[in-house]
Design goal:
With 255 residues, the protein is α/β, with parallel strands linked by helices. It is 43% helix and 15% strand.
């Protein structure tokens, strides 16, 4: 199994990679032999994590500032990856945003466009550019990080859920478009206790979790790693078009 999960010689790009689930995936990929590109809107945070990755694992890592909702920045990110490493074997579209709003009628056109831009428009552009290069080269793996909001949205995350539902559809279309040498799959997380959860009422969340989540808790960031490594590596060589739900059972619809 360790051989199947070996990423030696491969290059992984993770958007939204400087914190939360993205950070865990960046570290895991490097620990399994990959060179890593950490991308997010905050360039300094990306550079800091890239330095930490190299210090911990000895693998080469770089940080690149990129707002994936802006296609010109996506284009620059792709060119940077290929200029520095000459290849990209794993693309993780992890960047996301879900701003709060008081009610649906208060969602402005600007907010709607930003949510769609980061959660769907950016992943489409990066996948189109990198997937095409992967297909022309040695193949690769595209991993889209969705959300259980895509199949079970609440009124507080409706725009976000709609964008992630589009990402699920995009995942299936990419699998068909870039096969057989490029695999495209999704990870569908439920509630994870990342830095974002610091803004939650954790006592109220824990109480709800005991009655609404079969595992009775939120996920720990490191619990995303197994699925990410599986989809990035040869362990998933016959897996494409799949969306793996990792949510403690919180969303009861198939996924």
């Amino acid at each position: 199994m360790s051989d199947l999960l070996d990423l030696s010689g491969r290059v992984a790009l993770v958007t939204g990679g400087s914190r939360g689930l993205g950070r865990e995936m960046c570290l895991a990929f490097a620990e399994h032999g990959a060179s890593v590109v950490v991308a997010s809107r905050k360039a300094n945070a990306c550079h800091d994590l890239a330095t930490e990755i190299t210090e911990i694992t000895g693998q080469r890592a770089i940080g690149v500032g990129c707002h994936v909702g802006h296609w010109d920045e996506c284009d620059t990110l792709v060119e940077t990856v290929y200029d520095v490493f000459g290849r990209c074997d794993v693309l993780v579209n992890n960047a996301g945003m879900s701003p709060l709003y008081p009610d649906l009628s208060s969602v402005s056109e600007d907010l709607f466009d930003k949510v769609i831009g980061v959660n769907l428009k950016g992943p489409f552009r990066l996948s189109a550019l990198i997937g095409t290069r992967m297909q022309a080269g040695d193949g690769g793996s595209i991993i889209n990080v969705s959300s259980t909001a895509s199949v079970s949205p609440t009124s507080n995350e409706l725009t976000y859920g709609a964008a992630k539902a589009g990402l699920n559809a995009l995942t299936l279309g990419l699998a068909r478009s870039f096969g057989p040498t490029v695999r495209a799959n999704g990870i569908m997380p439920g509630p994870f206790l990342t830095d974002i959860s610091k803004a939650w009422d954790l006592e109220a969340f824990a109480e709800r979790a005991r009655t609404s989540i079969p595992l009775e808790r939120g996920g720990q960031p490191g619990e995303i790693v197994g699925a990410a490594l599986y989809l990035a590596s040869d362990a998933s060589s016959y897996t494409t078009g799949a969306i793996i739900k990792i949510d403690g059972g919180s969303a009861y619809t198939p996924g």
